[in-house]
Amino acid sequence: MPVHIHTLRACCAAALGLILAVILLGVAYAPPRAEADLASVTGRVTCGGHPPGKTLIVFAGGGPRGTPGADLVGADGSFRLRAGNFDGLVPATYRIYFLPFAGAAPDASVDRKYLRPETSDLRVRLEPGRNDVAITLPGAARGPTLARHP
């Protein structure tokens, strides 16, 4: 069975295009060179002794290499941050604030200043490796407590 040169050329071009696409996607979605240098971030947040309801926790900032990270606060107040496809954030100092989830009304127990990045005074320095962050928001009368455990 003879193979026409045009068919062979088309198959080789398609194969070459597929190989290039796989290589480019591999580069685009590759982990950072030093993925071990990322800061793994888990923690728990409470407000007045109870977890806030239907709330996103956002870590913003991180300098020029930093990517913001966010997670939905669980029913028990726990969270685990991701930035894009990676588990963890670039080690840096981040500002923490909260957002109501999917159009839900803001939790009335969370002071309004923690609902905007411009007004939140919660900051944490993340180091490479594991970071366990405990945030206690007692309300508007007292300031927050922020603890980071390596």
Q: What is the strand arrangement across the widest sheet?
A: 4-1-9-10
- What is the overall shape? elongated
- Count of runs of 4 or more consecutive helical residues: 1
Average predicted local confidence, pLDDT: 78
Radius of gyration: 22 Å
| CATH fold group of the largest domain | Immunoglobulin-like
Helicity, as a percent range:
10-25%
Structural class from helices and strands? alpha+beta
CATH classification class of the largest domain: Mainly Beta
- What is the second-level CATH architecture of the largest domain? Sandwich
Low-confidence stretches: none
CATH superfamily of the largest domain: Carboxypeptidase-like, regulatory domain
DSSP strand count = 10
Distance between the termini: 68 Å
Task: Give a verbal description of the structure.
With 150 residues, this protein is α+β, with helices and mostly antiparallel strands. The chain folds into two domains: 30 residues; 115 residues, Immunoglobulin-like (Sandwich), CATH 2.60.40. The protein is built from one helix and ten strands; from the N terminus they run αββββββββββ. The chain is elongated, with a radius of gyration of 22 Å. The model has no long low-confidence stretch (mean pLDDT 78).
Describe the structure using short key phrases:
150 residues; alpha+beta; Immunoglobulin-like; 2 domains; four-stranded mixed sheet; four-stranded antiparallel sheet; 16% helix
What is the strand and helix layout of this fold?
Blueprint: H1 5-28, E1 39-47, E2 55-61, E3 69-72, E4 78-80, E5 82-83, E6 86-87, E7 93-100, E8 122-125, E9 129-137, E10 145-149
Parallel strand pairs: 1-9
Antiparallel strand pairs: 1-4, 2-3, 2-7, 7-8, 9-10
